[in-house]
Amino acid sequence: MKALYSDWEQQSKTLSLTSEKNNSDSIFSPPWPMELDKESQLFSEGLVSVRDLHEYKTLTKKEKLLIMSNELNNFFSINIFGESQVILDFKSLLKKNYPHLVTEYIQHFVSDEINHSKWFSKFIDLYQGKKFSPVFKVKKQEIDSDENILKIFVKIYIFEQISLFYSNALVRDRNVNELVKRINAQHLLEETSHLAFGEAAIKYFVQKTEFVNKGVNLSFKKHIRDFIETNWLSFYNPEIYVGVFSEPVKISDLAFQNPKQLTFRNDVTRTILKKLENIGLRLN
């Protein structure tokens, strides 16, 4: 157990050094424009939640651009509210008696999340008007046991893996607006460090709890599965479709239930669960 603690500490030390060298303010250089080109594509069409529906395929170019703008707003809004949960969780964990190197990186982690929320909020305020409402609610979570702390780290890991998947796709899409790509490239860089920290933490708590001997209990698995489902639901927020479709809630349901979308979500989820299995936590 001491060796595992040492591994977590060493990873934390390495990531803190990386974080100190990182200049996230570079995201504002060159300065952001006062407005964006109305013909600018703000989201990757390959990620659009309604892309497999006939109703989307019959839209005009202008309507598709509005949907893509709304998709970006929703993605940034998901991150803003999700990062609020991460900040709340980690501020609670700072009260625990973890080694100095671990708590030092948690502070870097929290600082990063605050910066991300500032970027996303600034973009929405400048170019899109208002944030979308989240499907999930930010709430204080129990940290009274190692199992509950493990839940927190696993949920943060899953949330950030999904976010990383989207940011990576946006950065790689040559059709996406350059400022959007710049924001997501910086987000990608910092989230990669967060995931490395999360893996070290999960390894530690998996070994520390009884899971390593008895297997993950059903209630833990259900809790994580429910979280994954809620997380994915947030990507089909009816607000995305307002102004384009007359029945946004109906479109949201159709998109979420679409077989191709189910396959897409399952593929991404399966990859994340495999990563967790590789670090010692099997949830299948």
The CATH homologous superfamily is named Ribonucleotide Reductase, subunit A
Residues in helix, %: 55-70%
| Main sheet specs | none
**Quaternary organization:** single chain
In the CATH hierarchy, the architecture is Orthogonal Bundle
Tally of individual domains: 1
CATH structural class: Mainly Alpha
Kindly report the average pLDDT value. 91
What's the count of strands? 0
Structural class: mainly alpha
Number of helical elements: 10
Radius of gyration: 19 Å
Separation of the first and last Cα atoms = 26 Å
CATH topology: Ribonucleotide Reductase, subunit A
Shape: globular
Order of helices and strands: HHHHHHHHHH
Which percent range describes the beta-strand content? under 5%
Low-confidence stretches: none
Give a verbal description of the structure.
With 284 residues, this protein is mainly alpha-helical. The protein has one domain (2-7, 50-278): Ribonucleotide Reductase, subunit A (Orthogonal Bundle), CATH 1.10.620. Helices cover 68% and strands 0% of the residues. The protein has 10 helices and no strands. α5 runs parallel beside α8 (218-233). The longest helix has 33 residues, at 61-93. It is globular and about 55 Å long. The mean pLDDT is 91.
Q: Could you outline the blueprint of secondary structure elements for this entry?
A:
Elements: H1 2-21, H2 54-57, H3 61-93, H4 100-127, H5 146-172, H6 178-208, H7 211-214, H8 218-233, H9 248-257, H10 259-278
